[in-house]
Structures are given as C-alpha cells and as structure tokens.
Amino acid sequence: MFTCHAVRARLTPYLHGTLPLKVRRRVSAHLERCPHCHAAYVQQRQLMHELQRRLPPLGQPTQPQLARVWDGVQAEVRASQDKSPAVRMLRYRASYGLAALGLVALLLLPVVTQHDSASASAPLHTRPAAVAFATDWPPQPLTLYRTAASFRSRYGYNGTATPQAQAALTPAPAHRP
Amino acid sequence: MDSTPMQTGVTIAQAIAGDQTAYQQLYEQYAAGLYRLCYGLLLNRQDAEDVAQEAFVYAFKNLQRYDSSRAAFKTWLYTIAVSRCRNLYRRHRHPLLDLAQIFHLAAPCAETPEAAMAQRSAQDAVTRALGTLSPRLREALVLRYGHGLTYREIADMMGCPQKTAESRVRLAHERLRDLLQPALLEELYSVEFS
Q1: Looking at residue B104, what is its pLDDT?
Q2: Chain B nearest CA to A22, separation (Å)
Q3: In the CATH scheme, what is the code of domain A4-54?
Q4: Position A127 pLDDT exceeds 60
Q5: Which residue of chain A has the CA closest to B181?
Q6: How far apart are CA A47 and CA A176, in angstroms?
Q7: A chain contacts of residue B38, beta-carbon cutoff 8 Å
C-alpha cells in the first residue's frame, strides 16, 4: 500500500504514463480512496495541460528574426571557409612559390643581361682572344676552336710566329725622302 | 514539416558536398524550433538569436562529424544549442527576462481586449515562473512541454541518464505548482473557460 508521500512523488510520471503498470494501478487505487491526493492530482494535471498549452508558443520567432540569424550564419560560415586549413595551405604555397620564382629571376638577371651585352657587342672573330675568352665564359666549343685557330695562324704549332705573321707584326721601315 | 531521417541524411550529404541550398534547407527546417528552445532557456530575445546563430554555425562547420547512427540531426543540433545556452547563463548567472517580448506575445483566440489582456497575463505568469527555475529544471521542462520530446531524447540532449531527466521534469513540475498555485492556476482557468 502506497503512502500519500509516495503517491505525490509519483504523480508526474503517472500523468506522463511512464510508470510500470503495477505501480500505476497502486497509485490509481490510492487516488480513488484519498481526496487530498486526488486534489493534488487534479492540480498537477491542470498545470501539465497549462504548460503543454503555454510553452510551445513561447519565443515563437518572427520571419525577420530568422532572416537576421540566417545572414549571420552565412557570414560566419563563409569567413570560416576562407580561414580553413586547406585554403590557408594553398595560399602559403602560392606565396612561397611566387617568392621562390622571384628569387630565381633575381639570380638569373645578371647572367642574362651579361650574355645579352656580350652577344650585342662586336663579332667574335674581330675581338682579341683574351676578351672573347673572358666575355664568353663558359666557353662554347666553337669559341675555343676559333681561338685556337687564330693562335695557330699567328704563331704556328710550336708557338713561334710564322714568317707571314712576323712580316705582318714587324713595322714597315720608314721611307726617307 | 519534419522530414524523414533519410531525407535529412541526403540533405546533410549534399551540404557536405558544398551545396549551399542544402544548408539553407537544413536551416529552414530547424531554425524556428531551435530559436524557440534557446528563447525558452534564456528568456531573452537577443541572447536567443545569438545562441541560435552560434549553434548553426558550429553545426554547419562540423557537419562531417555528425553521426546519424548515434542520434537524430535534431537531437545533435539541440544538444549543441543547450550546451551554448549553458555557457551563456554561466556567464550571466541570472536569466534576463525580455519584458518587451513578453508583453508583445500574440494572444490566440482572444476575441475581446479583456480576454487578450488576460491571455497575456497568463502567459507572463508562466514565463516568470519559468525564469525562477534553476537552469537544469528549466531545460527539462522546456524540452518536455515546449518541444514534446521523450525522456530518452531529453536525457541525450542534457547529457544525463534517463531517470535523471525524469526526476528533473518532476521537480520542475512540483516547483511550478508551488509557484503558480493556487491563485494563478485559477486565473489561468478563468481565462481558459471564459
């Protein structure tokens, strides 16, 4: 047999229908006999109906409110997508790639400009061999061949000047009037 | 209208794949309920808007972490919102009653100005009584009566055993009965039967 205290403690689950059948029957039997507990049960039931009626419309949002929240959601999600690790990594890679490209271009610039100035100068065969050798570094096979040919034509194979070269190098005697 | 879990699953998959309309679809489906939940817990319009927004942003950013085998999307979303609300009333300590909102509640089925006034008064009484409850009891009551959830769902959202959820609803019920009885319930019923 349940006491009044035990029944009052079970009124809410009794109203919600969550009590086991056996307990439910015992509570029902008590409520039929006890007018005080029955009055408490009626009050509790009224309150439950009132809450079921009053709470669902509480805080019903308006359309502008929902639109405002949606705008905020969209803005925050977009901002976070911009800051996502994948996008950040892509940006880092792009910036590092550009920096590396710039560095390489900077290093190649003097070589490219030097080569351009050398090729824009006088033709190779008219230049002295030493100048050609210095400006055309690293020497190309054709340049080396021409330099060697020029040396041979002047000094022969053993390094002594040929008679033609000596004649060409010896200044002509001054004619006396 | 509630869609089936399968439809929701398809919408979530589309959203993860980057479909913006899927995000909007999810928002339209759950926004009103989520806002009502936040308002019921915080009793303040501005805070409710902020928390609803935070909850959706978190959910959308972490959509790929949602596991449909563990809980319904609604349960997951509401759990996020309850957690955010807890953070907020830990900071505020006391709920801020938004009187402007309370006094502008619509009065359904009120044909005369007197009846409308009485309806508002009754609604205010319930809202004020709700504001005096502790956060845990308020959560249990709002989830049970405001959203008609089962004790299992309430327990999942509140992160407690089902029995604890049941006893919280019972305690909240008893606390409200003490607060609203007897004069107010009579007033409520005079409104209802007038």
Answers
A1: 45
A2: 18
A3: 1.10.10
A4: no
A5: A43
A6: 145
A7: 59
Residues A51, B40: contact at Cβ < 8 Å? no
Amino acid at B74: K
Beta carbons of B12 and B66 less than 8 angstroms apart = yes
**Residues of chain A contacting B148 with CB distance shorter than 8 Å:** 56
> DSSP for A86-100?
HHHHHHHHHHHHHHH
Highest CATH level, class, for B99-193? mainly alpha
Per CATH, domain B5-92 is 2.40.240.10: no
Contact residues for A54 (Cβ-Cβ < 8 A; gap 6+):
B122, B123, B126
Q: Which two tokens stand for residue A43?
A: 């009050």
The 10s digit of each residue's pLDDT in B96-151 is 555 444 444 444 454 567 777 777 777 788 888 888 899 999 999 999 999 999 99
Q: Is B51 left (phi over 0), alpha (psi -120 to 50) or beta?
A: alpha
Six-digit token string for A60 = 């019903």
> How much is the ipTM here?
0.77
Q: CA–CA separation, A13 vs A17, rounded Å?
A: 6
Delimiting residues of CATH 1.10.10.10 domain(s) in chain B: 99-193
Query: Which candidate from B61, B123, B127 shows the least CB-CB separation from A80?
Result: B61
Question: Where does CATH 1.10.10 sit in chain A?
Answer: 4-54
- Cβ distance B35 to A56 less than 8 Å, yes or no, reads no
Within chain B, all domains assigned CATH 1.10.1740.10 are found at 5-92
With an 8 Å Cβ cutoff, are B40 and A55 in contact? Answer: yes
Q: Residue A109 has what pLDDT?
A: 84
Query: What share of residues in chain A are helix, strand, coil (percent, to 5)?
Result: 75, 0, 25
Q: Do B36 and A69 touch (CB under 8 A)?
A: no
